Amino acid sequence: MRRLKFFPAPYPDECYYSIFCRYFARSGSTSNKRTIFELFGEAQSLAAFVFLPRRLELVDIWLGADSPVKREKLALDNSCYAYFSTAFTRQLYEGMERKIKTGEPDRSLERRIIQKCRRSHWPERLRYCPDCAREDMERYGETYWHRMPQLPGVEYCLKHGTPIRDSEVTFRQITMAFCPASHALQCLPLQEDAEKKKYRQRYLAIAGDTEWLLRNGLKLEGCRNIARKYKELFMEKGLTTAQGVRYPDRIKTAFTEYHGEGFLKQLFQDKENYLYWLDFVFESVSEHLRPLHHILLMEFLKGSSEKFYEAIPEIEPYGNGPWPCVNKICLHYGKDGAKKVSVSYFNGLTLGQFQCETCGMKYQRSNTEQVFEEYVEHVTILNYGHYWYEMLRECVEVKKLRLTETATVLKCTTTTVKKRADEIGINPNQNRKSCIYREKDGSKTDRSQYFRRRVTELLEVQPELTASELEEQIPGAYAWFNKNDFQWLKQRLVVDQEKHYWAEWEEEQLKALISAYETIQKTGDPDRRITVGWICSVAGLRESEIKGRLHRLPNIRAFVEEAVEGKEEWLERRFKKIAARKKLAGKDLKMADIRREMSLKPNTYQKYGTFIDGLITELNCCIQGKKSDKNGLNYQQE
Ligand SMILES: [Zn+2]
Ligand SMILES: [Zn+2]
Predict the structure, then answer these.
(1) Residue range 33-56: average pLDDT?
(2) What Cα–Cα distance (Å) separates residue 617 from each residue in 101, 129, 364, 579?
(3) Which of 38, 58, 346, 352 is most buried, most CB within 10 Å of its CB?
């Protein structure tokens, strides 16, 4: 691959594929294959370029770093990346942003994004607006493939109100061929769809929102944030319980009423159960919602994607005020007294900050589903407030209380007292009686061993253990570690929020691993041993990310155990193939064949010597009669 002699300047709303088509035509090339190799250096399917900014890493090579056409501009102005980002998880979105910025090649990311954009929902043919095509001809002397008409639900041109039409060019055709619009769109007969005309306004609304998402989709920050906002707006509409649990039937009825049954049926081509995805609207990692679904939901909730983006839900995510104070020594504790400082949204969390007007204690909540009674057990205090510090000072400096006594008065732990006292520069231990606590040495080591053993045992059966679960199962353990070796325990426990996070994380990674495994099975080197590392690298993950976390990922663990080949398994599989080939030639398998074909390391022969010898003997005497092969290899085909 080298710098190109020229590269057509992209037209407004032109899709990436179309730019290549014009390059092909203008370069005078007569061979699709030659141009594909010239551009990509290898065989490359072209269809996804209609929607997605693939192979961005090549842009610098084609154009040189000084070109005004940049990766970012191509991704935003000439692909549907922003539109599809509404269905992206945070990880995918960040991966894509990184790729655009750095231009690093990342095949695994591309594969995941294509999966996400659901090939099966692409239209059958490339589509166009006849009036746009005519205008293009007048203005530029040629026409091109626009992005908008290719997107689902766009049936009318937003600019002309003209019905969008199918061209002769199919998606199948363009996988390996450049079909410039100027050639394809000559003298096509016009067709009019009376059924679609009935819902012209609705289609135009979809086109309007599609255009808005193409420009602004990234502002919505991916499906997790969108799902959270859906929940709040559904709540506002009375379509959920106060806790945010959906009323599925009410939602379906209201949604159908808004869009009209006839329109929805036409849009989803009378597919059975065409509104199934409404059941997944609140799921932040949902696989079910496509951008078109998002458009319909946003219209239903706020009239349009833009208004949805601007809407601020009226509901109070943490209930109505006055909010309770969390200061245990304040009169308002657990009842009232606090006002709302702010509610903000960050990384899919709804952060609410509240402050007591009497004592000044300020706290933050981040889980709207957690009831206050539960929250108050593990509060996040941002500021202890003036009253609490005054009381601390009084305990230490006026009443001359010892550390434990101070903690009792302030209704908190001694650790808290120490930390806060440190902040305001007083020594909470200044009133300590001269008394030395002495642990009975023998009993201390006993307990240390005892608790470590018990916790280790418990972790065997319950690898994801939270502090409260531990306290239930081994009373006293938490307190003991807290005092003696908290670090040891901390490394082994998870917190509740983490559990949820890891469940989501695991689900997402497992999908990537499975699809990587399928890719390996289809296109990978069949002679190579299938290892965790290999699957991870195809999936674009770091091996350590997965291996180091297997203890908390039971589903991935199960998959890995199933998919990964042990050394002996792999040797057996390879040997069988070689043996089968020799057998066809009427010969026996010899050690020399193995040495020639497999280039094993010397210590493999040492370590697996007996196994290898046994295997060779076995294969030579009874290759056909052996039990069926795990990997389904068929010897006759070899
Ligand atoms: Zn048009
Ligand atoms: Zn208070």
Answers:
(1) 90
(2) 57, 71, 70, 11
(3) 352
Q: Which ligand is nearest to the CA of 159?
A: 1
5 within a domain of the structure (yes/no): no
Domain count, the chain: 6
User: How far is ligand 2, taken at its centre, from the CA of residue 197, in Å?
Assistant: 63
pLDDT score of 266 more than 60: yes
Asked if the model's pLDDT at residue 545 lies above 70, the reply is yes
Residue among 146, 261, 260 at smallest CA distance from 207: 146
Q: Domain boundary at 473, 493, 513, which?
A: 493
CB 124 within 8 A of CB 170: yes
351 located within any domain: no
User: Residues 516, 581: one domain?
Assistant: no
Q: What is the mean pLDDT of residues 556-560?
A: 88
Which domain covers residue 429, as residue numbers? 387-435
Angle between helices 567-584 and 591-598 (to 10 degrees): 110
**259 domain-assigned:** yes
Residue 190: pLDDT band (50, 70, 90) is low
Cis geometry, peptide bond prior to residue 8 (ω within 30 degrees of 0): no
Q: Which has more pLDDT, 347 or 407?
A: 407
Q: Which pTM does this prediction carry?
A: 0.54
Same domain, 478 and 554: no
Domain stops at, among 188, 210, 242 = 188
> If you measure from the C-alpha of residue 415 to the centroid of ligand 2, how many angstroms do you get, rounded to a whole number?
21
d(CA 217, CA 309): 9
Ligand 1: centre distance to CA 311 (Å): 30
Ligand closest to Cα of 387 equals 2
Ligand 2 centroid, distance to 317 Cα (angstroms): 21
Do 558 and 595 lie in a common domain? no
Residues 466 and 506 both lie in one domain:
no
What is the CA(155)–ligand 1 centre distance, in A?
11
Q: In the predicted model, is pLDDT for residue 84 greater than 60? A: yes
538 and 409 co-located in one domain? no
pLDDT of residue 362: 94
- Whether residue 39 sits in one domain with residue 180: yes
Give strand pairing partners of 356. Answer: 338
Residue of 384, 22, 389, 387 whose CA lies nearest to 179: 22
What is the spatial distance between Cα 265 and Cα 500, in angstroms, rounded to a whole number?
A: 37
Both 456 and 534 in one domain: the answer is: no
pLDDT of residue 369 exceeding 70, the answer is yes
> Do residues 148 and 117 share a domain?
yes
Percent of the chain topping pLDDT 90 = 30
Find the 359 Cα to ligand 2 centroid distance in Å: 4
